[in-house]
Amino acid sequence: MIKEIIVATGNKHKVEEISEILKGLDIKVIPMTSFPEYPETVEDGAVLEENASKKAKEAAAFFKKWVIADDTGLEVDFLNGEPGVYSARYAGENCSYQDNNNKLLEKLKDVPYEKRTAKFRCVIAVSSPEGEVSLADGQIFGIISGTLAGVNGFGYDPVFFVPEYNKTFAELSPEVKNKISHRAKALQKAKEIIKAK
What is 4-196's CATH topology? Predict the structure, then answer.
């Protein structure tokens, strides 16, 4: 039985979401930020699955512990799947969430509502200390809004509009987002993987 698991991300928002969704398990969740000496994984994979697996395996080998890692991408249909695997650095290295959102809105500025369809995808990798990786994924469909709205969440949440709720991710409460999001769906599957170990 897994007693503790390291979350291999420096993103505190992701750590919060992952910890919240894994709450029901009797597992201690340890954020990667507890180990400032750990070298950052170079995310050079062509797809989300490669990056998530690499992050999980490298950290598991380093710490000799179970590790959970994710890679997440926003895929906009009109832009042929952009920003995809480059979502976090869409506007360049060390860019802010605001920079990424501005670039996306600029690229879509004359695109009509019905052509602004998109999906958020999340791939979760769970690695054993020996480097055996299991993958889980989740996705949610939405529309890229024309303006930023809402103060919750992070990343592209202020522009990702969910028609069923008539709100952007950033306008939804964390409780609702953590039930319906791409990461929530992937983590529910990952939860079953962890339980079975």
Answer: Maf protein (3.90.950)
| CA 134 from centroid of its chain's CA atoms | 16
Q: pLDDT value at position 119?
A: 98
Please tell me which residue in 71, 77, 99, 110 is annotated as part of the active site. Answer: 71
8-40 b/e (C-beta count within 10 Å ≥ 16 → b): bbebeebbebbeebbeeeebebbbbeeeeebee
Instruction: Give the pLDDT score at 62.
Output: 95
Using 50 as the pLDDT threshold, list the residues of the chain that sit under it.
Answer: none
Domain boundaries, the chain: 4-196
- What's residue 120's pLDDT? 97
Between CA 97 and CA 102 the distance in angstroms is 9
Verify whether residue 77 is a known catalytic residue.
Answer: no
On whether the CB atoms of residues 27 and 2 are closer than 8 A, the answer is yes
* Nearest-angstrom CA–CA distance, 9 and 16: 11
Q: What is the pLDDT of residue 163?
A: 97
The DSSP bridge pattern shows strands 28-31 and 67-76 to be unpaired
